[in-house]
Fold this protein.
Amino acid sequence: MWVITASIPVLIFLLIEGILNIADFDFYSTEVAFKRFDDYQVLHSISEELGSDLRQNGLYKPYQSESYYINSHGVRTKEFSQKKKNEDRTVVLGGSTVWGSSVSNHHTIPGFLEVILKRELPHNVITVYNLGVEGYTFADELELITKFFHLIQPNQLVFYHGANDNTLNYLYLIGAQNENHSGKSILVEKKTTMNWIKSSLRKLEIYKVLSFFIRSQIGNKSRLEIGRDLYEERLNKIVNNYFEQNLKAMRFCNEKKVTCYFILQPLIFHKQPLTRIEKTLVHRRLKKEPGLDTLYDDFVDRIMAKNKANTVSEACNIFDFRMVLRGVEDILFGDFVHVNQHANQIIAEKIGDTLMKYRSSVDAD
């Protein structure tokens, strides 16, 4: 009898663990979140229609509709045309958040920004081009504008990024997670009974769910299981790489005599308060990639501190947009980075405000 009684807690534990493994604590998939976007159904239908033909030569297959327009050069924007007198042209570069996942043309960040700049500069001819491409990093953005600059002749460039670079940075750190400076496994060098127990516990779904719940309640971020010294070493390399790209971009802008802005975007971790669906999306992401939020914040914090201290020659015009979506109670995110039209409008307003402030300071000088 006592054996049966003693087995009950174990059976309950195994039952809960099994349920969590099957459910993956996934009450809401990203598709459910995206279906709440106003433009989702139209864009989803177009995506199904195009299928594998959506991409072409690294960019996109030309397509014309009110909701989804790809020009003859393969980017999601209006056709490049000869620049008019008194025309003010802005190019927004970035990944899928600029491109506009699950939102129509006029609900993208560049789409909203054009409306805002026309409102602020009624006597100018305003054109905003969307040069966002899914999956693009900072380096890709610079390569793309180098290719199309002569066709657009912009007055200013807005580089809006962070998420895709952070994914690559995370993979770089994951490689470091299992190796130390000598190339040997950290886990082998520190193979103790306590570490084995800790490692085994972290694999349990119950541990992952409870760990996330506790951290979310006390405001702690997740973290990578990596030595602090190694983490610092690789983080410094990541930050230095960003500034190398930044300097290349600034030199390009100076050569072309255009103003450039570099905006580090918000991720779902930065929005407060989170809706129930958004909390689930955060849990799912951090459960699979613990430390992704911590890495991005450390990355951006270092960049902003270094830029503020002016320790990097020529690097400037870097803006931290992580907190721009705080205070919005409605759902904004469809996954860890892609947002709906409401969020795009908020972001575009902030970009417009940034551009106008810079323009006013230049006019004052």
Notes: The radius of gyration is 23 Å.
